[in-house]
Write a structure and sequence with these properties.
By secondary structure, this protein is of the alpha/beta class. It has nine helices and 13 strands. The two termini are 60 Å apart. Keywords: DNA-binding, Transcription, Transcription regulation.
Length: 310
């Protein structure tokens, strides 16, 4: 049995007239009659009574009409779903993100994408840059949002945002009440808490470069994977640290944030593995690229600056 047999039968059964049905199907009447006859022979069931006066459905024909309509409707639905999956508009999407991107970038991008693609099931994971790279390489992640640059040649990057750095200081620190920008050199003799380089080279290297530009290497007394933990360590008077501007969203009554006078920036990027992309991931990447270029995705306001939006 072929699908065209079902479609032909449905039109004939609804019209109860071979001439009108043939016209709707854009075929001649004799081949249509033969197709219905072949269907009945294959099923070994009489579906239609036809004579010179009328065409009518048998009881079996009435039942089969309902079944055929349901079959075609279900198939059409599955074809539409298959097309949407192939277009990346259905399916699942696993996204990794690091640090303070959860405060501004991820909510904006994910909300906008979900608004236009409600059929995509998104899974979010907060991971270090290094853990995201592992996930992208081993296909447990589709897309990552991390700190640029990344040296692994298997990973493609699109720089999205850059932001200034701030010093995170204990509330009683000598610089806590300073109203002007802080010179990083003023933190030369402090104990520092910092994320380890193994968690992500981009962020760590930017902080070290900032210190190096001021002529010193930070004296790191403790490390932590997450920026929220670094803030807690500063609050506990374990040392000072340098964080991206957006980290000020991490509220703690025992710390203050002071902007640093430096040209070095933290750069956030979207990352993916071109060799392991699902249709949904490919569509998501195109959506973000297009949205950033056209300005249709809401951008964070200053002090963030989009690499693509100027």
């Amino acid at each position: 049995m072929e699908l065209r047999h079902l479609r032909y039968f449905i039109v004939v059964a609804e019209q109860l007239h071979f001439g009108r049905a043939a016209k709707l199907l854009n075929i001649s009447q004799p081949p249509l009659s033969n197709q219905i006859k072949n269907l009945e022979e294959e099923m070994q069931v009489q579906l239609l009574v036809r004579n010179n006066k009328e065409v009518r459905l048998t009881p079996a024909g009435r039942h089969f009409l309902k079944a055929a309509k349901k079959c075609i409707a279900d198939l059409d639905k599955e074809i539409a779903l298959t097309q949407r999956i192939a277009q990346g508009k259905e399916g699942t999407l696993s996204i990794g993100f690091s640090g303070t991107l959860s405060f501004h970038l991820i909510p904006t991008l994910v909300k906008e994408f979900k608004r236009h693609h409600p059929g995509v099931d998104i899974h979010l994971q907060q991971l270090t840059t290094q853990d995201q790279l592992v996930g992208l390489i081993h296909e447990s992640l589709d897309v990552g949002f991390l700190v640029s640059p990344v040296a692994d040649p298997r990973i493609a990057l699109l720089d999205i945002f850059e932001e200034r750095f701030v010093a995170c200081l204990p509330k009683h620190h000598r610089l806590a009440r300073q109203t002007s920008l802080i010179d990083a050199a003023e933190l030369r003799d402090e104990h520092w808490v910092l994320t380890p380089r193994s968690a992500g080279h981009g962020y760590y290297d930017a902080v070290i470069a900032l210190c190096d530009a001021s002529g010193f290497t930070p004296h790191v007394v403790q490390t932590a994977q997450e920026q929220q933990t670094l803030v807690a360590l500063v609050a506990a008077d374990m040392g000072v640290t340098v964080l991206p501007y957006s980290a000020q969203a991490i509220k703690n009554d025992h710390v203050v944030y002071k902007e640093i006078d430096a040209d070095i920036r933290k750069v956030s990027a979207m990352a993916w593995n071109p060799d392991h992309l699902t249709d949904t991931a490919r569509h998501f990447i195109r959506y973000i690229e297009t949205g950033l270029n056209e300005g249709t995705i809401e951008q964070p306001t200053e002090p963030y600056r989009s690499h693509l939006g100027g």
